Amino acid sequence: MVFFKGCPLSCQWCHNPESHSFAPQIMYQQEKCSLCMACVSACPARRLYFNPALGKIAEKDIPCPACGACAEACLQEARQAAGRLMTVEEIMAEIDQDAMFYEQSGGGVTLSGGEVMAGDMDFVVELLRRCRQRGYSVYIDTSGYAPYKNFERVLEYVDVFLYDIKLMDDARHRQYTGHSNRLILDNLVKLSKAGANIYIRMPLIAGVNCSDADIQAVLRFLQPLNIRRVYLLPYHDFGRHKAERLGRESAPMAPPAPRRLEEIKAMFEQSGYIAKIGG
Fold it and tell me: For 7, left (φ over 0), alpha (ψ -120 to 50), or beta?
C-alpha cells in the first residue's frame, strides 16, 4: 500500500485526515510527551518552546517547515511525521522488497491516499509503468474526484479501481465532503464505458447514508454500469484520534448497527452484486 498525501475532498468521516494536505505535516500526541526538550533543540525554525504556564511544549506563530526534525529527535514518539517526499526510485525500492509475497499471494500494489488521481500524474504514471514492467498487479483506491483525463492516462496500467461512492444526493454530498458528487459520478460512468475493472467501496455512517432511500439511490445508479462487486465499509474512529493529533476537531460519528449492515448487504446481493462487509 502506497499512501499519497493530498485530497480535494474533506470527508467528515475520513480515517486518513493526515492525507488531506498535499504537504508533509507533524502530528503531536501530548500525553506521550516527556518534556525532554529534544524537539525544541531540533527544530530549525526555532518555533517550539516550553510554556511553563501551560506545562507543555508550545508553538510560536511561525510557519512549520514540516521537515520532520522534531519527530526524528522525539524519543517518545509524541511527534510523528505525516508524510515525506519520496522519488519513484525510493518507492519502487520499498515495493520490490515484497515481490516474493506478491507471487505467493497473488497480491500486488495499491495506490491510496489522500487522492492519488489529484496528484502529480507524471509521477503516478511513471510509478505505474515501473510496476507494470515488473509484472506487479496494481489497484488504485480513489474517490473519483479528479479530472477524467487523469484516469485516461492510467487505464492501461491499472488492474482494478477501488472506487468510492458516498452519497447520491448532491446537496448532502457537499455538506459532508465539501464538494459536489457530479464529477465523481460522471467519471464512474466513463470508466465503466471504457471497460475498466471497478469495485465499489461505500463507507457507511449511521444517520448519514444508511437509509433504504440512500442505498436504493446507489443501486439505481450502478445498475446500468459494468460493476458487480461492492465493499461495504462501516465507519471507524481511527481518523478522529489522528485529527486530534493534527490539532483539528472532528464530528462525532458512528457505524450502522450490525443488523443494519447485514440488511444493506442483502439489498446489494438481491440486486445481483457480490457484496462484502469490510475490505
Answer: beta
